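Sequence in, structure out.
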Amino acid sequence: MFYESIENQVRNVRIPTLIIAGEGDPLFNAEYIKRLLPTTPGARVVLLPCGHEGPFEMPTETAGLVEAHLAAYGARPAKDATTTRTAVS
């Protein structure tokens, strides 16, 4: 399997960052996440009891974490697309 580190890509991230990883993830395990933290200032890490595909394995928990993270910074959910459409005649 080809693997490339993302450490250089996250080095310049300067926005609030939520890192969600699975405790049983063979690629982005706790040891790897610990190496990323110094390169991503202010990042928050949550390890879920799952593997590599957390959003599929634990969708409710993943969604709740993302919603809480966004809410902490004042982000609001998008309006329903059907209420923002304009009728064209």
